[in-house]
Amino acid sequence: MEEEQKEKEEKTEQEENNSGDNNENSDEADNDENGRKTAVGVRFIKAGRIYHFDTSDIELEVGDRVVVDTARGLEMGEVVKKDILETDENAVKLLKPVIRKVNEEDIERLEKLKIKEKDAQIECERLIEKMQLPMKLISAQYNIDGSRLTVSFGAESRVDFRELVRDLSRNLKVRIEMRQVGPRDEAKLLGGYGRCGRQLCCANFLNELNPVSIKMAKEQGLPLSPMKISGICGRLLCCLGYEFEQYKAMKSEMPKEGRRVLTKMGEATVIGVKTIEEKLLLQLDSGERVEMTLDELNGKTEDKNTKDKSIEDKEPDKDKDKKAGGDKNRDDNKPPENKRSSQRRRSRKNNKKD
Question: Which string of b and e fits 6-19 if b means at least 16 CB within 10 Å?
């Protein structure tokens, strides 16, 4: 009996060791030898930022809707990237897991939460008007388990909303999170159509809102009127940055306005540049204005400084010519010899002959 019990104990120990080894091997396979991990990219709103999450050994494809664990609780998103290899150790440690794929219960819960979100917006607007707070309500959104309500609002300055949060949480019986957004983020959340007639870029496909400057409009030769280069958010159009680098590269190969160039019709001054057509508007020294391409220009472009240098180089030659001409004039202007001296020379010659 004792021998049988010992054999059983040895078998259980071996099984535990084997299971431990298998678990270690699986962990190594997931995290790789160098601490790397495969993740997926999840997006929560259209054209929103992409966040990375640990797959948790769930087979996922692009387009799958998933429930993930975030700092705000459980959220629902869509997989837009897969097989992302995270190599940074800190990023690997901070990866939140994918809980599961979205099921029918999640979809039903989401539809009920949308109805509650409308009621929450109405209540929030009522309290804002009652308290006369200088803020504009943009959206109110529950997370997937309904434990948190995120209220997005816009305001020109900081707003003391502590009383609003207290009344909202008491009336709705949910945890409230207030999030102030800027004008560009407001347009991204609300959506709409731009002056081009298309959907707003920020709400359609722009993942991140890059900074835009007035220099981009100047470089492209656009009118600097705020009404013409601003979007519905009141800020500069995002599309000003789309072709900025191309304009900059093309303009670097073309002469700037004010430069002197050589053409078949003589020297001219650049008074205008058509970057896309690669054409120059020139004014000849005669006052005539012509339009030419870079290929039609005869000779290299020259700056005013180089022209002044060439003029200086030519001036010494002129001085030499003047000096040479002066010497010739001096020879021509020599006074005539005296008649007596010429007669003396003649008489001397005659005497020698005799």
Answer: eeeeeeeeeeeeee
